[in-house]
Structures are given as C-alpha cells and as structure tokens.
C-alpha cells in the first residue's frame, strides 16, 4: 500500500503548518500521479482492445460489404429471374386461360351431345323393347304357322291319297264309260238295223187281216203310250253333261227319207224315251233304262236294251 493511500482524503485544515501543507500536497501529487499511471495503463489496454475491436469491425465490415455485393448480384439475378418467371407465368396463364376456355366450350358441347345421346339411347331402348315385343309376337305367330304348316302338310298328304284314289276311280269310270260307249254304238247299230227292218216291213203291202190286227194293236199301243208317257217319278232335270251323254248314247238316228215310201201309210211308233234317269250323290248310282214300244212289232220291246251304271262307292271325305 503506498503512502498516498494513507493520506487523509479530507481537505487541508486551516491553521496547519508549511510542512503539513507540503506533505499534504505531496501526498496529493503522488496520489494523482499513481492514478495517472493507472489511467494511462488502463488507457493503453483499452486502446489496444479498441484497436483490436476496430480491426475486427473493419474486417467484419469488409466481409459484410463483400457479402452485400454478392447479395446485390444475387438480388439482380433473382430480379431477372423473377421478371422472366413472371413473363413466363403470364404467358402460361394466358395459355391456360385459353385452354380453360376451350375446355369449357368443349365440355359444354360434350354435355349437349351427351344429352342428345341419352335421348337417342332412350329412343333406342324404347325401339328395342318394341322390337323385342314384336319379335316375340312374330315368334309366336311363326310357331303357330309352323304348327299350321305341319297340319296342312298332313292334310295335303291325306288329300294326295284321296286324289290318287279319286284318280284311280275316275280312270275306272272312264274305262266303264268307254265300254258303255261301245255298247251304245252296238245298240245304235242294232237300232238302225231294226229301223231298216221296220222300213222294209212297211214297204211291203200288209194283209187285210194283218192290217186289222195292226190297227187294233196300234190303238192299244197309243192308249198305253199316252198313259205311260208321263214321268213315273218327278226328278229334277239332270245336269247338262249327264243328259247330253245319255241322249247321245240312247237317241237313235232318224231313218233316211229315201227308204220311206210316200204312198204307204206308216204306222206310228213310240220313239225311244228316257224312262228314268236318277243320280244319287250318296250312292253315285246312275240307272238308265231305255225302252221302245212298237204297236206293230211287240217282239221289239224285248230286244230294247237296258243300261245300268253303278260305280263303286268311294270316300266322300273332303279336304279338312
């Protein structure tokens, strides 16, 4: 501890001596000098520290300036990039806006088309249902037609068999008709021969007794002919084909006028007469009776032919 530290810090009292004043001021001087040295030492230390701080600050300032310059370049670069990105974004936004507008229009068009397609689909479904119902009706009608066709085929087969039987029966009847025509021609020949014989007998001069006998017989024959000339059974007129066929077979030709003598009295005789013609559709029986009456020659009635046509019964079943 220095002597200055031992000095009182109070001021110098009044009435002190010179020695006391000198010691007092000396102590003050030493104290101030020590304080000055301490202050200088601390100032040097503080100056060194401040210099170090200044150097560090300058160094940091230089670093920060360099960093600021680098960041300025980066800022300029980012500004350029920002401007470029903004222009690109604006272009992309415009493009996307156009695409969105186009897509909206396309979507609206597709929605309208979808609605039309749905309407058309509903129409198609309705047509499909109608077509299905029509197809089912056609199938049922087709099945009915097939069944009807099978039944008609069976009926056609039965009809073919019946037609074949009728054809055979018709051929048989044609053969019988040919035979009957031949018999009719033979009968007509006999009739012509008989008429020629009658004509020759008329050409001859009759005996008085024979003449009287012939007159009596002729009167009797006229009476009987008048009585029997009326039809026995009232039947409807036959068809044209049957009557024409029978008349062609039974009507004899008239004798030639050259064979008859003008001066000789011809005894009237009953011509050939269709006595009965009956056609029964159930039995299909045709009976033709031909009779000739002659008052002059009663034996001729025995030679008159009787034609009877009786075909065999056939099936009368018609097509079902």
Rg, nearest Å: 82 Å
Strand content: 5-15%
The helix content is over 70%
Question: Structural class per helix/strand content?
Answer: mainly alpha
List segments where confidence is low: pLDDT < 50 over at least 5 consecutive residues. Answer: 1-8, 223-320
Major beta-sheet overview: 3 strands, antiparallel
Please tell me the overall pLDDT: 73
Describe the strand arrangement of the main beta sheet, using strand numbers. 1-2-3
Tell me which oligomeric state these chains represent: single chain
What is the molecular shape?
Answer: rod-shaped
Alpha plus pi helix count: 5
Gap between N and C termini, in Å? 166 Å
User: Which sequence of SSEs, written as H and E, runs from N to C?
Assistant: HHHHEEHE
Write down how many β-strands occur, each being a DSSP E stretch of 2 or more residues: 3
GO molecular function: microtubule binding
InterPro entries: NUDE, NUDE_dom
Biased composition (Low complexity): 223-233, 240-261, 304-320
Region (Disordered): 196-270, 296-320
């Amino acid at each position: 501890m220095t002597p200055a530290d031992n000095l009182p810090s109070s001021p110098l009292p009044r009435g002190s001596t010179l020695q006391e004043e000198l010691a007092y001021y000396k102590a003050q001087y030493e104290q101030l000098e020590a304080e000055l040295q301490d202050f200088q030492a601390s100032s040097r230390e503080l100056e060194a520290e401040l210099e170090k701080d200044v150097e560090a600050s300058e160094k940091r300032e230089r670093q920060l300036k360099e960093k600021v310059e680098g960041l300025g370049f980066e800022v300029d670069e980012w500004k350029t990039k920002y401007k470029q990105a903004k222009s690109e974004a604006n272009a992309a936004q415009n493009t996307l806006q156009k695409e969105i507008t186009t897509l909206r229009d396309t979507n609206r068009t597709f929605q309208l088309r979808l609605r039309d397609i749905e309407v058309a689909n509903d129409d198609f479904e309705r047509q499909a249902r109608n077509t299905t119902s029509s197809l089912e009706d056609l199938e049922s009608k087709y099945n009915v037609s097939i069944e009807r066709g099978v039944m008609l085929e069976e009926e056609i087969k039965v009809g073919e068999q019946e037609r074949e039987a009728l054809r055979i029966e018709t051929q048989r009847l044609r053969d019988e008709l040919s035979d009957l025509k031949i018999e009719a021609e033979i009968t007509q020949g006999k009739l012509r021969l008989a008429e020629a014989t009658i004509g020759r007998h008329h050409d001859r001069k009759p005996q008085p007794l024979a003449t009287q006998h012939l007159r009596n017989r002729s009167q009797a024959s006229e009476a009987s002919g008048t009585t029997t000339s009326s039809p026995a059974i009232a039947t409807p007129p036959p068809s044209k084909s049957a009557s024409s066929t029978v008349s062609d077979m039974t009507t004899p030709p008239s004798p030639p006028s050259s064979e008859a003598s003008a001066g000789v009295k011809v005894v009237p005789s009953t011509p050939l007469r269709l006595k009965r013609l009956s056609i029964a559709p159930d039995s299909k029986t045709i009976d033709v009776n031909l009779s000739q009456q002659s008052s002059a020659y009663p034996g001729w009635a025995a030679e008159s032919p009787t034609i009877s046509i009786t075909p065999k019964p056939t099936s009368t079943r018609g097509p079902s």
